[in-house]
Write a sequence for this structure.
């Protein structure tokens, strides 16, 4: 871990740190990733239960259509959509598309607006 | 320490991200309600089983790199850092083992 001979620069005066739109999209990418990680063990257990027998399948189906689950699903669907969109944005930047400041700001804004909108759409589409 | 190698982690993160994107796009047309026997036949079948295993494999590899980056950024004390990384590794390996066991059980029962 300590391969750096010098101390890395650290700037953690929270009140002074500015959060431009790209930083908000970036921190949301991290937050959504952590949320998805927290959900992962639950998903693995649900997968196992749904494959076990008929009753398990029915209980998982009932659980994921209960009102409480819809709220949890809403947060997780947002996390998934934001993570995927922000991830695609990063992959495009990797191959040299949209790295300029103005376009990067525009795409960050697009991701931040599109993710909740798409999440709401997917949620209602899934419920209907 | 190889475990903290940056370039390999970068490549693993990108390849797993692309794999997850492709799998998600492939899965979208099939996102319709199933009954139990169709679901287990799919997950226990020669196509569905490996695809779900691949999905969770890519997911765990991707999650490992991402969470590792976050831990290395925000947690400086070495002991705490190692403890959190170990916890994450245990959770991800547990998820992977659990999914593989579920898929194997489904394959055996069909």
């Amino acid at each position: 871990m300590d391969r750096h001979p010098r101390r890395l620069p650290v700037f953690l005066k929270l009140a002074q740190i500015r959060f431009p739109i790209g930083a908000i999209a970036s921190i949301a990418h991290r937050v959504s990733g952590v949320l998805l990680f927290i959900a992962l063990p639950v998903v693995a257990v649900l997968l196992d239960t749904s494959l076990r027998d008929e009753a398990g399948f029915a209980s998982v189906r009932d659980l994921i259509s209960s009102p409480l689950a819809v709220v949890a699903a809403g947060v997780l669907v947002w996390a998934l959509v934001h993570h995927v969109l922000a991830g695609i944005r990063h992959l495009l930047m990797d191959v040299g598309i949209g790295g300029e400041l103005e376009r990067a700001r525009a795409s960050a804004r697009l991701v931040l607006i599109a993710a909740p909108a798409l999440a709401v759409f997917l949620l209602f589409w899934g419920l209907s | 320490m190889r475990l903290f190698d940056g370039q390999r982690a970068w490549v693993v993160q990108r390849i797993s991200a692309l794999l997850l994107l492709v799998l998600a796009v492939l899965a979208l047309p099939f996102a319709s309600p199933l009954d139990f026997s169709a679901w287990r036949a799919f997950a226990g079948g020669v196509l569905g089983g490996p695809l779900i295993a691949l999905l969770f494999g890519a997911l765990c590899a991707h999650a490992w790199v991402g969470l590792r980056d976050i831990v290395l950024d925000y947690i400086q004390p070495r002991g705490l850092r190692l403890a959190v990384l170990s916890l994450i590794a245990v959770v991800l390996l547990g998820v992977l083992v659990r999914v593989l066991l579920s898929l194997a059980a489904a394959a055996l029962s069909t």
User: Anything to note?
Assistant: The domain at 21-38+71-127 of chain A is CATH 1.20.1300.10 (3 helical TM bundles of succinate and fumarate reductases).
